Amino acid sequence: MKISVQSIHFTADKKLLAFIQKKVDKLDQFFDQIISGEVYLKLENTEDEANKVSEIKVSIPGTQFFAKEQCKSFEEATDLAIESLRKQVEKYKTKLRSHLSNHKEILAEVASAE
Fold first, then answer.
1. What is the crossing angle of helices 74-113 and 14-25, to 10°?
2. DSSP 3-state assignment of 42?
3. What is the dihedral of CA 73, 67, 1, 97, to 10 degrees?
4. Which of 33, 10, 23, 9 shows the shortest CA–CA distance to 84?
5. DSSP states of 7-34 as a string?
6. Where are the beta strands (DSSP E) in the chain?
7. Dihedrals φ, ψ of 7, to 5°?
8. Which of 98, 88, 68, 97 is nearest to 27 (CA)?
9. How many CB atoms neighbour CB 9 within 10 A?
10. What is the pLDDT along the chain (114 residues), one digit of tens a residue?
């Protein structure tokens, strides 16, 4: 899957970029029709230690999913955001399957009525 990573007001190192790519690629295991992803890494101006924000947007035909997490490290924030996206994708797949099975049942009823 093609992803773009933008680090805002700092430069992300290669290890962090590789970590993010690996985590986002794991979403393909749950749904193989993911088109692309966008990751935004930000440093919040707070006195709190948890000032690292990871925002991830994933595009699927017909819809988009978004997750935003703030933690002490970008890795932790990315992990939590990916977990949130995984849940969104699985819920979407369940709805999609339900819709398709209902559609097939209706077609079967129509075919048997003829």
1. 20
2. strand
3. 140
4. 23
5. EESS---HHHHHHHHHHHHGGGGT-TT-
6. 2-8, 36-43, 52-60, 63-71
7. -100, 120
8. 88
9. 8
10. 789 999 998 899 999 999 999 999 999 888 888 899 999 999 988 777 778 999 999 999 889 999 999 999 999 999 999 999 999 999 998 888 887 777 666 666 667 666
**CATH fold group of domain 2-113:** Double Stranded RNA Binding Domain (3.30.160)
Taking the domains of the chain in order of start, what are their residue ranges?
2-113
Residues 6+ apart with CB under 8 A from 5: 12, 17, 20, 21, 39, 41
Interatomic CA distance for residues 4 and 113, integer angstroms: 51
Order across the sheet with 2-8: list the strands: 2-8, 36-43, 52-60, 63-71
Q: Which pTM does this prediction carry?
A: 0.83
For residues 27 and 94, give the distance between their C-alpha atoms in angstroms, rounded to a whole number.
15
